[in-house]
Design goal:
By secondary structure, the chain is an alpha+beta fold. Helix content is 44%, strand content 21%. The chain is built from ten helices and 16 strands. The chain has helices at 2-19, 82-110, 130-133, 153-160, 224-247, 252-255, 259-272, 274-291, 300-312, 320-349; strands spanning 24-31, 36-41, 44-48, 51-59, 113-116, 122-125, 141-145, 148-149, 168-174, 177-183, 186-187, 192-195, 201-206, 209-210, 213-215, 217-220. Helix 2 (82-110) packs across helix 5, helix 5 packs across helix 8 and helix 7 packs antiparallel against helix 8. The radius of gyration is 25 Å and the shape is elongated.
């Protein structure tokens, strides 16, 4: 999956390098050695390599030299203007995001999009949650909350949330049998956005009462136009989520993960079927594109920052000393990020905190 997603990313670099008159020496699927050449065309070797962990595009003249001679390489990367280099660098993340959007659009049109049902019918129930201990079951229809009739999931949610560690009564129907239950919602682990009974925001975030249930999910096929609009909400939501992590660093351990998280998520998605695998692939592709825009070398965003600085300098290259400093700082930050997500994986799967929420096993860009 990662190899296919990286191939889409690298194709963006490849295509825009060609469009800007740069020679591409190699387009490789996979990493490592040896390289098996399956085609040569217009000066480019198309190769397969043994490790299915990604791929790369090697553009002519892309290695900086101490004397700055990389700018003199005919049809080389650094012989082109900073604007051309910005376009080539940006094309990779752009194609990753577009590949994810294309996958989502295809899924939403061909199969549909999972959305919470409006009816106040209980879906999955978390083990050892207040709802589980109270004997509520999947498929229960909620009739009343604290004596107030409810007809939608959002109405039920709006009545439950104010009960933080305080008793709550609920009237439910299961296969025609009506029961009255009283139990105590627990306080949410983190603040959540506040919405009214219509789903409209009513303020900031706050701790709320939760009973450990989710809505039933229905799959709704969308027309092409609606599918495209819905697919475009995924990168917007992902950027918003990333911004939320920077605003509230404590969420880093909950929202991020490394190779272990990806493996577990892929395994869970595979068990649920091809649809979930494709949803996960789309989410990973979009996140690959967005994360690569971070202004950290050697990510595309870091190289774009250098190209932009040279654009402001009217095309004059940064000194080799400054380039080296940027590289050193960038690699240190990337190394710190790698160590951080590996530590998150270690805590999540080797010494898991039972009080922490489980890691997300799938990417579902449906609106909440």
């Amino acid at each position: 999956m990662i190899t296919a997603l990286v191939a889409a990313h690298e194709y963006g670099h490849f295509l825009f390098a060609r469009l800007n008159g740069m020679e591409v020496e190699e387009f490789s699927i996979g990493l490592g050695k040896p390289a098996w050449i399956w085609m040569r065309r217009k000066g480019t070797e198309y190769t397969f390599r043994p490790l299915p962990l990604g791929g790369f595009v090697r553009i002519k003249g892309m290695v900086p030299q101490e004397d700055g001679s990389e700018t003199e390489v005919p049809n080389g990367f650094y012989s082109k203007s900073p604007m051309a280099r910005l376009a080539v660098l940006f094309a990779g993340p752009l194609f990753s995001v577009l590949a994810g959007i294309l996958l989502l659009t295809t899924l939403f049109v061909a199969v549909g999009i999972p959305r919470p049902a409006q009816a106040p019918v209980l879906g999955s129930i978390v083990n050892d949650s207040p709802a589980f201990k109270a004997g509520l079951k999947e498929g229960d229809l909620v009739l009343k909350v604290d004596g107030k009739p409810v007809s939608t999931w959002l109405e039920m949610q709006a009545l439950v949330r104010p009960h933080v560690e305080t008793p709550l009564s609920m009237e439910v129907s299961h296969q025609g049998q009506i029961r009255n239950i009283t139990f105590t919602p627990k306080k949410s682990d983190t603040p959540v956005p506040l919405v009214d009974a219509k789903g409209d925001p009513v303020g900031g975030d706050a701790f709320v009462g939760q009973i450990g249930v989710s809505a039933t999910i229905k799959v709704e096929r969308l027309p092409v136009g609606d599918a495209v609009k819905e697919a475009f909400t995924a990168p917007i939501a992902m950027v918003d989520g990333l911004a939320g992590i920077f605003k509230r660093p404590s969420k880093f351990g909950e929202e991020m993960g490394g190779p272990g998280t990806i493996v577990v998520a892929t395994s869970d998605a595979t068990k649920e079927g091809p649809y979930q695998v494709m949803l996960l692939a789309a989410g990973l592709s979009i996140s690959l594109g967005i994360m690569n825009l971070l202004p950290i070398f050697p990510l595309d965003g870091g190289q774009m920052t250098v190209a932009f600085a040279e654009l402001l300098r009217r095309g004059k290259r940064l000194s080799i000393e400054i380039q080296g400093a940027v590289n050193t700082v960038g690699f240190a930050l990337v190394g710190l990020l790698i160590i951080s997500v590996l530590w998150i994986d270690f805590r999540r799967f080797v010494i898991p905190d039972k009080s922490a929420p489980p890691a997300a096993s799938q990417v579902t860009p449906a609106k909440k």
